[in-house]
């Protein structure tokens, strides 16, 4: 990790040159000062993924931290999971048939307005290690494409289907058939705060590109998913310890929860923050 200069009220150490930073000098169970929050907000925009170690939060403190960023998001299928509608529990045990997020994705892009951020608080890690989460920088994924590919993608729109994680990665029927949301977003979007361009398709939710034959859409998406999955320089890796909270900018990243710890268990709680507007070109 490398110390990043320019912060007075928090300490920021980068995980890689372009994505991921560990933040220290803050206790998220306490209300952050305006200076701390504004530095944290800038660090979040700059580093996209912020890791906070050794935090001791109850559910209300976790939500209060997330609420500083905006209105909390309720997962479209939360009613079928039960519990607090603003907390998504991520639990994997020896009996799990799949683990949520085990594949490259951006959270809930099937929503008309997907979350702008998620704050995952891991409480229990596998006894013998593993269970890291990979994050990828979607600004860089866009930047690394050729100008020719960028101009082809510029005018395309993709469909994001909430049933896809079940039918694709998880290989089980969605809890409520076709009740999941399905929405369209541009393939290249502009981040509403940084104004940088982002490659905005993900193998978790993007089913097809509009206006193309199925074989064309499939090949184009597969090429982009391969680019995201195989370009290691897009990524950083968060190795969790119990009581680590990671906050990511869901508008310019993807993540992949690695299920390499079967039959051991892992448990965490995710709170997501609603975006302010639909993803736009
Ligand atoms: C998720 O996709 O939000 C879950 C990520 C994880 O469990 O690491």
What is the global morphology? Answer: globular
Strand order of the largest sheet: 1-2-3-4-14-6-16-5
Alpha-beta classification: alpha+beta
Q: Can you identify the CATH superfamily?
A: Clavaminate synthase-like
CATH structural fold name? Double-stranded beta-helix
> What value does the Rg take, in angstroms?
18 Å
The small-molecule ligands in this entry are: succinic acid
CATH class bucket: Alpha Beta
Q: In percent terms, what proportion of residues is strand?
A: 25-35%
Descriptive account of the structure:
Helix content is 23%, strand content 28%. The strands form 4 sheets. An 8-stranded mixed sheet has the order 1-2-3-4-14-6-16-5. With 281 residues, it is α+β, with helices and mostly antiparallel strands. The protein has a single domain, classed as 4-Layer Sandwich (Double-stranded beta-helix). The chain binds succinic acid. The site of succinic acid (SIN) has 11 residues, from strand 6, strand 15 and strand 16.
């Amino acid at each position: 990790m490398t110390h990043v200069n320019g912060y007075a009220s928090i300490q920021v150490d980068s995980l890689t040159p372009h994505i991921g930073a560990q933040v220290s000098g803050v206790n998220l169970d306490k209300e952050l000062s305006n200076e701390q929050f504004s530095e944290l907000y800038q660090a979040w925009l700059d580093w996209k993924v912020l890791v906070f170690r050794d935090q001791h939060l109850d559910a209300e403190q976790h939500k209060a931290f997330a609420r500083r960023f905006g209105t909390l998001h309720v997962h479209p299928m939360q009613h079928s999971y039960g519990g607090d509608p603003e907390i998504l529990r991520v639990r994997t045990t020896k009996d799990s048939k799949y683990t949520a997020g085990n594949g490259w994705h951006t959270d809930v892009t099937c929503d008309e307005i997907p979350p702008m951020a998620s704050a995952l608080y891991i409480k229990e890690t596998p006894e013998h290690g593993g269970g890291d989460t990979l994050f990828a920088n979607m600004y860089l994924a866009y930047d690394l494409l050729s100008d020719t590919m960028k101009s082809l993608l510029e005018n395309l729109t993709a469909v994001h289907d909430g049933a896809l994680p079940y039918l694709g990665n998880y290989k089980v029927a969605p809890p409520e058939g076709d009740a999941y949301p399905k929405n369209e977003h541009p393939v290249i979007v502009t981040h509403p705060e940084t104004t940088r361009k982002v490659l905005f398709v993900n193998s978790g939710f993007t089913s097809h590109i509009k206006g193309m034959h199925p074989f064309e859409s499939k090949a184009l998406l597969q090429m982009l998913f391969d680019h995201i999955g195989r370009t290691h320089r897009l990524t950083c890796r968060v190795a969790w310890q119990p009581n680590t909270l990671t906050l990511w900018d869901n508008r310019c990243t993807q993540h992949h929860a690695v299920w390499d710890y079967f039959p051991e268990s892992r448990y965490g709680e995710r709170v997501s923050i609603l975006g302010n507007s639909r993803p736009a070109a």
